[in-house]
Amino acid sequence: MNTIPNTISQELIDEFVNISHGYLGEDGFTQIKEMVEQHPDLVYAVHSDGDETGIGAAAHMGERQIVQYLLDKGATLDISIAAMMGWRDKLANFLKQAPALATAKGVHGIALIYFAALSGDVKMAEMIWVQFLTFAKKVKARQK
E strand or H helix at 51, and its extent? Predict the structure, then answer.
């Protein structure tokens, strides 16, 4: 986890993450950009619930414009974000590096397959499902 300067209040962080869900449409996106311009470290900040960043909030709501903006500002790309954005090559690379990521959970414990569904890419969802089953079969075999 990144250390956020004390100059950014938890209240501001929580507001940023809440707005990052995309509920406010273009007005919210404008607010996000203004907030990040004033406080660039907001892209790393975690909500007081301890579970969610701005990019995580945007990702589980399918807010591609917000996700792309936050990535451009330095937010961390993870497998759930790659899946939601429909970046099949990046997802495949994550799974190649660590096959167990097929069982990964995103923010709020949401299954990876959900993020693939948000992308609308059926092939990507199939890739995750096949990798998940393959990994689960290996784990089960080791338990015998």
Answer: none
Question: Which sign, positive or negative, has the C-alpha torsion 109, 111, 112, 117?
Answer: negative
108 touches 116 (CB < 8 A)? no
Could you tell me if 112 and 106 are in contact, meaning their C-beta atoms sit under 8 angstroms apart?
A: yes
DSSP annotation of 47: -
**11-47 confidence digits (pLDDT tens):** 999 999 999 999 988 999 999 999 999 999 999 999 9
What's the longest Cα–Cα distance across the chain? 56
Question: In sequence order, what are the residues at sequence separation of 6 or more whose Cβ sits closer than 8 angstroms to the Cβ of residue 106?
Answer: 56, 59, 60, 78, 80, 81, 112, 114, 115
Burial 64-92 (b: 16+ CB within 10 A, else e): bebbebbbebebeebbbbbbbbbbbeebe
